[in-house]
Hints:
This protein is of the alpha/beta class. The chain has seven helices and eight strands; from the N terminus they run ααβααβαββββαβαβ. It is elongated. The chain starts with 7 loop residues before the first helix and ends with a strand.
Amino acid sequence: NPSSKKYLIEQYSIGLVSNTRELVTVAQAPQVSHSAALFGNPEFGSTSQSTGSKTRGMNNLARGIIGQGISPLPGTLGEVTNLDSFLKENKWQTQTFLGSAATEQAIKQQNNPGILHIATHGFFVETADEKDAVVAGGDLNQSEHNPLLRSGLVLAGAGKYLVDKGPAGEDGVLTAYEA
């Protein structure tokens, strides 16, 4: 603008209209969800039998996750409890999933909470073992080329499933691919 010696963008709000319908449609501000789902202190299940000869029969993923056993995370109980209190003080609706409730299935059932807080072990298995036919429920050929099948979070029941090869379905390991 020569009279004000300013650029038009400094004086006016300018927006790009790619369709004339946008001129009559009133844009609505997105609703901010004040809900939170908080996961922590999962009960992994018994991994005491996972050492020694039993680990030789496990696939590379199970060995990579368990190693010498899945250590409990009692500090995450306080973490989730403190976060829950803080959010409630600030008028948020919260759901907490602790111990045996901190499951893979419970995470998958979440429907776009404002905050999804997961306090647990994470893992990444460098390469798939060629002797393994299946890694994290997927074909070895896929997992070798897809790191999303070799990384994820360890949740309630994972230790028992990985050692005892529990029933089909949720195994307590949420891979990056599943997420």
